[in-house]
Specification:
The protein has about 650 residues and is of the alpha/beta class. The chain is built from 32 helices and twelve strands. It has five domains: about 190 residues, Rossmann fold (3-Layer(aba) Sandwich); about 70 residues, no CATH class; about 200 residues, no CATH class; about 60 residues; about 90 residues, no CATH class. About 60% of the residues lie in helices and about 5% in strands.
Length: about 650
C-alpha cells in the first residue's frame, strides 16, 4: 500500500466534518496568525519591556531578566501594562498598534486574516465547525468569521465561560484561552500564568475534549503546560485528532500527539485548511459520501489561481500528484513489459486511468484558468509520460504510461480550447519528444487515441471523451455543450497541426492555395460573365470555373490523403447523398471565410499564421473526416438500405444528438 499523503489525510478529515458537522474543535496557535504580520505573545511582551526600559533610561539586552531585577517580580502583561499605561483605555490603545493595521500596513495587506483563518470561517459558515479555541491575542479569527456573515460568541475572560449556552446551540464559539488585546487584564503569557487554568476553564476543556475531536493548527505546545494536560486528560476518542504542522513537532508536542493518537498532517496552515474547506465544499455541493477527489482538486486549483493566494501551492500539488503517479505500481511493472497477475493488461489499464483522475483535473483547471507561467508546471510532464520505456515484453504494456500522457494531453487541450487559449493549444500540439532511436516525434500524432490504445480498444476516442466528460461538466462546470464543442475543436485542430507538421504536406498546401486562387479568379470571371450578354464568354467562363473546381478538389483531396486520421470521435454531417463533412470543419471554414487573418486560430499561428494555408488545411481535414464518416455510415447500413442520419459521431453505434 502506498503511504498516505497529506491530501489523503485531509480527505478523511473532510468526510468526518461533512458527515458529522460540529464534531471537531479547532485549537489555533501562533503559527496561524504570525504569517499575517501579527507578532507572537512573547514578541509583544518583549517590545513592551524594551519600551519600559527606555522610559526608565536604561538599555536591556535581556528585557525579561532586566524587569525581574528591576522590579523584583516576573514580568506579566498586567504588571508591565500597569507601569506603561495606567488606565484601561490607555492599555487598549497601546496594544492596538501590535494587532491592528496602520494605514501603511492596510495597504500592504498586513495584519489581515490569513487564508487559514478564512478557511476556518468557511467551515464554520457551512456548519462543519463550531468551536475554536485560540491561544492568540488577536481578533483575526473573529474578523474572518464576520466576513463570512457569521457573528461569533467570544470568550475573553474565564468568567465568561460560566454563562455560555450549550455549545451545540451556537453557530460559532471563539474562546481566547489566554485572553485578547481588547481585554489586557485577561492576557496570560508567563510560565506561571500558563501553568494552570481556573477550575471552570479546566471543566470546560474536559467537556470539549469529551464531546469533540481535535484539530490542532500552528501550535508548538512547548509553553502551554496547562493546555497540554487538559487535552491529554480525556481517554475518550470518538473522533480521530489531527495535528497540522509543516515541520517536526517539538518533543512535548510529539509526546502529546502520541498520547492522544493524533494524525500529523505535514503542511502549513494556509494550504491544509484551504484544501480541507475545498474538500468539505465539494462534498456538500455533490451531497455524496464518495471520495470526490477530482472535485476537491478542481476547487483547490481554482483557489490557487484566483489571485487571492500564491499560485505556487498549485505547483506543489501538481508535483506531488506527478511524483505519486510515477511511482504507481502498475506503471513501474509496465517498464518490464510484463502484465500484472491482478487482471492482466486490462486491470493495469483501469487502475492507471483511475490514478490519473486528480492530476488530469488539476491540469484541466490550470489550462483553463492559468497563464503561460503556470503552463510550464505541467506541460513537461506530458512529454515525460509520452516517452515509451525501453525493454522487452509486450509493447502495449510498455506503452501503458502513455495512457497518462494521453489523458493529460486531452484534458489540457480541451480545457484550453474551452477557454479560448489557442496559443496554448498550438503549443501543446507542437510538443515533441525523442523516441528510443533518437527520432523526434510530435505529440499530436504520437498521442492519437488509436495509437495509444492500439487494437485493444474499439473506440479509443470515445473512451477518452467519456472519461473527461464528467470532469469538465460536473467539476469544471463548463457545460455539456461547451465541452462537446471544445472537444471537437481540439480533436480537429490536432489533425490540422499534425498534417501541417508533415514535411510532405508543405508542397501540397502550396498547390492547394494556388488552386484556390485560380478558383477565385474563375469565379470572378463567371460573375462578370453573368452580368454581360456575351454567350461565348459565359460558356468559356463556365468551363474555366468547372476546371478550376475540379483542380481545387483534386488538390484538397491530395492533401487530405496526408491527414493521419483513423477513427476520430467527431461529429459528421450528411450534406447530401453520399457526401459527408466534419461539423467542426464546416463551422471553422465559415468563420475563417468571414474573419480571414483576424481569426483567433490564424493569430495563434495555426497554418503558419496564414489564412489561405489554414483554409486549405481545414478543407483537407474536413474531407478526410468526411471519408471516414461515409465509410462508417455505409457499414451501418447492411445492403446499403436504410436512412443515413444527418448528424452522427464517428465511434457511436447510434446517431449522436445534434
Amino acid at each position: 500500500m502506498q503511504p498516505r499523503t497529506p491530501f489523503d489525510q485531509l480527505i478523511s478529515l473532510a468526510f468526518s466534518l461533512y458527515s458529522t458537522p460540529g464534531s471537531y474543535a479547532c485549537v489555533l496557535g501562533a503559527g496561524v496568525s504570525i504569517p499575517s504580520g501579527v507578532p507572537s505573545a512573547w514578541g509583544v511582551q518583549e517590545e513592551l519591556l524594551q519600551k519600559l526600559a527606555s522610559i526608565e533610561g536604561e538599555t536591556a539586552s535581556d528585557p525579561f531578566a532586566w524587569y525581574e531585577t528591576k522590579y523584583g517580580e516576573l514580568p506579566s502583561y498586567e504588571g508591565v501594562l500597569e507601569r506603561l499605561a495606567p488606565s484601561q483605555n490607555e492599555r487598549q490603545q497601546l496594544l492596538r498598534g501590535f494587532f491592528e493595521p496602520s494605514e501603511v500596513e492596510r495597504e500592504l495587506q498586513h495584519k489581515k486574516p490569513t487564508q487559514a483563518h478564512r478557511a476556518i470561517a468557511r467551515l464554520v459558515a457551512g456548519g462543519a465547525l463550531r468551536v475554536i479555541l485560540t491561544l492568540n491575542f488577536d481578533r483575526l479569527m473573529e474578523t474572518a468569521l464576520r466576513d463570512e456573515g457569521v457573528e461569533p460568541v467570544v470568550v475573553s475572560y474565564p468568567s465568561d465561560i460560566d454563562g455560555l449556552p450549550p455549545v451545540h446551540t451556537m453557530q460559532a464559539l471563539v474562546v481566547h484561552l489566554h485572553g485578547d488585546y481588547l481585554n489586557p487584564t485577561a492576557m496570560l503569557n508567563t510560565k506561571t500564568e500558563l501553568s494552570t487554568y481556573p477550575k471552570n476553564v479546566d471543566a470546560f476543556l474536559d467537556r470539549i475534549t469529551f464531546d469533540h475531536g481535535l484539530l490542532l493548527v500552528g501550535w508548538s505546545a512547548a509553553y502551554d503546560p496547562a493546555l497540554v494536560r487538559a487535552l491529554s486528560r480525556s481517554s475518550r476518542r470518538i473522533y480521530t485528532p489531527y495535528w497540522v504542522e509543516p515541520g517536526e513537532l517539538s518533543a512535548i508536542a510529539n509526546e502529546l500527539r502520541s498520547s492522544i493518537d493524533a494524525v500529523k498532517i505535514t503542511s502549513d496552515a494556509d494550504t491544509a485548511l484551504g484544501r480541507l474547506a475545498d474538500a468539505v465544499d465539494a462534498l456538500r455541493d455533490r451531497e455524496s459520501r464518495d471520495p470526490l477527489v477530482a472535485a476537491t482538486a478542481v476547487g483547490t486549483a481554482k483557489r490557487f489561481l484566483s489571485g487571492r493566494t500564491t499560485a505556487i501551492g498549485l505547483h506543489d500539488h501538481l508535483q506531488q500528484e506527478f511524483d505519486r503517479l510515477h511511482q504507481h505500481k502498475d506503471l513501474l511493472l509496465s517498464q518490464t513489459g510484463t502484465e500484472s497477475t491482478d487482471g492482466g493488461y486490462d486491470g493495469m489499464l483501469a487502475r492507471v486511468e483511475e490514478a490519473t483522475v486528480v492530476s488530469s483535473a488539476l491540469i484541466a483547471t490550470a489550462a483553463y484558468w492559468g497563464s503561460a507561467k503556470t503552463d510550464q508546471w505541467w506541460k513537461r510532464e506530458i512529454a515525460r509520460f509520452a516517452i515509451e520505456t525501453r525493454g522487452s515484453g509486450d509493447p502495449q504494456v510498455r506503452r501503458l504510461q502513455r495512457v497518462c500522457a494521453l489523458k493529460f494531453f486531452y484534458a489540457a487541450g480541451v480545457a484550453a480550447s474551452a477557454a479560448g487559449r489557442f496559443d496554448l493549444v498550438r503549443d501543446l500540439l507542437n510538443l515533441r519528444v525523442n523516441d528510443q532511436n533518437g527520432r523526434e516525434l510530435g505529440l499530436c500524432s504520437l498521442l492519437a487515441p488509436e495509437a495509444v490504445y492500439g487494437n485493444r480498444e474499439s473506440a479509443p476516442g470515445r473512451r477518452i471523451y467519456s472519461t473527461l466528460s464528467s470532469l469538465f461538466v460536473q467539476h469544471l462546470a463548463v457545460g455539456q455543450r461547451n465541452f462537446e464543442d471544445s472537444w471537437e475543436t481540439f480533436e480537429f485542430l490536432r489533425l490540422v497541426e499534425s498534417t501541417y507538421g508533415d514535411p510532405q504536406s508543405a508542397q501540397l498546401i502550396g498547390l492547394a492555395t494556388a488552386a484556390e486562387e485560380q478558383l477565385n479568379s474563375a469565379q470572378e470571371r463567371m460573375d462578370a460573365a453573368d452580368g454581360g450578354n456575351d454567350l461565348d464568354e459565359h460558356d468559356g467562363a463556365q468551363s474555366a470555373l468547372h476546371r478550376a473546381n475540379q483542380n481545387h478538389g483534386r488538390r484538397i483531396g491530395s492533401l487530405a490523403d496526408k491527414v493521419m486520421v483513423l477513427r476520430p470521435y467527431l461529429t459528421v454531417q450528411n450534406l447530401q447523398i453520399e457526401v459527408f463533412r466534419s461539423a467542426t470543419g464546416q463551422k471553422l471554414l465559415n468563420e475563417l471565410a468571414r474573419e480571414l487573418d483576424l481569426h483567433p486560430l490564424v493569430r495563434a499561428g495555426f497554418g503558419g499564421g496564414r489564412s489561405a494555408d489554414l483554409r486549405a488545411l481545414f478543407s483537407a481535414v474536413d474531407v478526410s473526416i468526411g471519408r471516414i464518416g461515409y465509410d462508417v455510415a455505409m457499414a451501418s447500413m447492411p445492403g446499403r438500405s436504410g436512412t443515413v442520419p444527418d448528424n452522427f459521431r464517428i465511434g457511436d453505434l447510434s446517431p449522436a444528438a445534434s
